[in-house]
Amino acid sequence: MMISLEKLVRPNIWSLAPYSSARDEYSGKEAHVFMDANENPFNAPFNRYPDPLQRELKAQLMKVKGVPEDMIFLGNGSDEAIDLAYRVFCNPGQDNVVAIAPTYGMYQVCADINGVEYRSVLLDDQFDFQADKLLAACDANTKIIWLCSPNNPTGNSLNRDEMLKVLDAFGGIVIVDEAYIDFARQLSMRQELVRHPNLIILQTMSKAWGSAAIRLGMAFASKEIIAIYNKVKYPYNVNLLTQQQAMAMLKDPFEVDKWVKLLLSERVRLMQAFQELPLCEKIYPTDANFFLARVTDAQRIYDYLVDRGIIVRNRSKIQLCSNCLRITIGSHTENNELIAALRQF
Ligand SMILES: *Cc1c(COP(=O)(O)O)cnc(C)c1O
Q: pLDDT for 146-161, tens place per residue?
């Protein structure tokens, strides 16, 4: 039961006349003399502005993800899609968003940057959530509910039925961050897009696709929402090198499948070895390429590992995560090195 998009989008954004770049006004293929964008004729191919809508890349993504091109937004990492959500939907000083806690820190950072109230609702002791509790934290000014599944830093997938309940009951936008979905047993929520015009799904090439350096994040949503995102984004927000490298990666999705399988089997091995360490108090179930573990003394263990050149993430200061370390699954030898070091702690 989504409120109309016109009521959800900020009035200034709804009525915005977007910047029209040279490449927007002419995008045909037949021309061979380009004197419209004040580009330099030398230093091809880097002299030309890249496609502002990344059409070739989206055509390839459509085949891999099964989402039509006009339902895909591409940005400078998922972080761009997160920030855009606030700029599109939330009136500063007036609107608010609701999120699970603990979760990915960028949702709150972007809320703070945009002057938007951020309301968090603590997860239960299984790190899962109840739709009713999230909905109870909403009011007439709540524009967005943030969900992250598998969740960071906890690693678990959220209960799908509860996520669907939120989608059905909430009139605003529900954003499901699926940065780790390629590692998960749960299916992506992509197939729910047809039934839920208020759903935005975030994915990224930074994790399973092994391409954090190129900064490519994706948002999947209704074509109406994507059109508004395209209006607000920087005209050339994804550079040519990123578009080319992403297309090279997408040509061989089976390579990614191999990495994922390998990382999942390494995850089993690393977690088993970790569990037997005297310093391990509890390992939480995970659906991602990392796991959260409660240890005897997170700060001392963290410092000890830093001294040995091994960096894990100390999440001790986060609600529900006291004495917890978040450990990313590395290569076979990296995982061995971590365990060998911890056995000597
Ligand atoms: C790593 C991560 C991302 C990825 O962000 P990028 O900007 O695409 O690199 C997004 N969401 C979550 C929850 C993450 O952990």
A: 999 999 999 999 999 9
Q: Which of 330, 291, 54, 84 is nearest to 202 (CA)?
A: 84
Name the 3-class secondary structure at 94. coil
- Compute the distance between CA of residue 181 and CA of residue 203 in angstroms, rounded to an integer: 8
Instruction: Compute, in angstroms, the gap from residue 10 CA to the centroid of ligand 1.
Output: 25
pTM: 0.96
Nearest of 198, 219, 199 to residue 4 by alpha carbon: 198
- From CA 153, how far away is CA 316, in angstroms rounded? 11
Which residue out of 207, 214, 215, 286 has the highest number of ligand 1 atoms within 8 Å of its CB and is therefore the one to mutate? 207
Write out pLDDT tens, residues 182-195. 999 999 999 999 99
Q: Which residue has the tokens 């960071």?
A: 152
Q: Determine which residue's CA is closest to atom 11 belonging to ligand 1.
A: 179
40-53 confidence digits (pLDDT tens): 999 999 999 999 99
